[in-house]
Write a structure and sequence with these properties.
single chain, 236 residues, mainly beta, five-stranded mixed barrel, five-stranded antiparallel beta sheet
Length: 236
C-alpha cells in the first residue's frame, strides 16, 4: 500500500485548506508533495485550539488556509496545535489531575496540572467510555494515564486494572448495567476467555428511543472496539 505523506514528521508544519465544516471538526485538503496528489484529512475541534471553543466556526471557516501537522497516517488526522514535546516523560497508569476544558459527544479534553518535571502545558483525552459520570466544563477531575500513543495521551477515570486485551471485537457477552447517563449505559462484563471484569459503554447514539434500562438490569452486548476503550452495542 502507498503510504500518504511519506517523510512528514509530526513536528513538521505545512499548508492546508478547509473544505467542509462538521459538527465536531472539519475536512481539510493537503498536497502530498511526493505524488502531487490532493488528500482529504480530518481536523477535530480539540485540535484547533488550546482554548475552549463553542463551535468549529470560532476557529476556522470554509476555504481558510491553515497550518497543520500530521497526527496519524491511518486516518489522516491533523492538528493546528503545537506538539507537547515533554509528554513522553509521563508514565502509563500514573495518576494525574486536571480540568475539563472542552467536550464532544465522544470525549472530553482535560488540561492537566503540570508535574514538577514538565514545563509545558499538557492535555489529555478522556473518552466517554472511561468516564465514571457525565462531566461538566470546568470540572476538576482525577484520572490515570490509560495509554501514550505518540503524543496522544488517553485518560481514564476507572480504577480497575482490567485488561482490554481480554476482549475481542464482535464478542457477544452478558453484562450488568452499572449506570444510566446522558452518555448512554455503562455495562460491567466479564471477558469470554477469562480475566478481570471491565466496564464498557453503549453510547446513547446506539440506543433506540424506546430502550429503557435501569441499574442492575441484565443486558446482552457486542464488543465494537477494545483498543483504547471498551465500546459496546446492544446485541440481538
Amino acid at each position: 500500500a502507498v503510504v500518504p505523506l511519506p517523510g512528514v514528521e509530526p513536528e513538521q508544519w505545512f499548508d492546508a485548506r478547509i473544505q467542509e465544516i462538521l459538527q465536531f471538526g472539519a475536512v481539510l485538503s493537503v498536497t502530498d508533495l511526493a505524488s502531487n496528489e490532493t488528500l482529504l484529512g480530518n481536523l477535530h475541534i480539540f485540535e484547533m485550539s488550546d482554548q475552549y471553543l463553542d463551535s468549529v466556526q470560532q476557529a476556522v471557516s470554509v476555504n481558510d488556509s491553515v497550518k497543520v501537522r500530521l497526527l496519524n497516517r491511518d486516518d489522516l488526522s491533523f492538528s493546528m496545535r503545537k506538539p507537547p514535546k515533554q509528554l513522553i516523560s509521563l508514565d502509563e497508569r500514573k495518576e494525574v489531575e486536571g480540568q475539563v476544558t472542552n467536550k464532544s459527544n465522544s470525549s472530553a479534553l482535560v488540561k492537566l496540572k503540570q508535574p514538577s518535571n514538565v514545563s509545558e502545558e499538557l492535555w489529555g483525552y478522556l473518552p466517554w467510555s472511561e468516564m465514571e459520570k457525565e462531566l461538566q466544563l470546568g470540572e476538576e477531575v482525577r484520572c490515570r494515564i490509560l495509554s501514550l500513543q505518540g503524543e496522544k495521551l488517553a485518560l481514564t477515570m476507572r480504577t480497575s486494572d482490567c485488561s482490554l486485551k481480554d476482549f475481542a471485537c464482535k464478542d457477544v457477552l452478558n453484562g450488568v448495567v452499572q449506570e444510566v447517563t446522558a452518555l448512554g449505559i455503562f455495562v460491567r462484563l466479564q471477558p469470554l476467555r477469562g480475566g478481570r471484569a471491565c466496564r464498557g459503554l453503549v453510547h446513547v447514539s446506539l440506543l433506540k428511543a424506546n430502550d429503557d434500562f435501569a441499574e442492575g438490569d441484565l443486558v446482552k452486548v457486542q464488543v465494537q472496539n477494545a483498543t483504547v476503550t471498551l465500546q459496546l452495542s446492544l446485541a440481538e
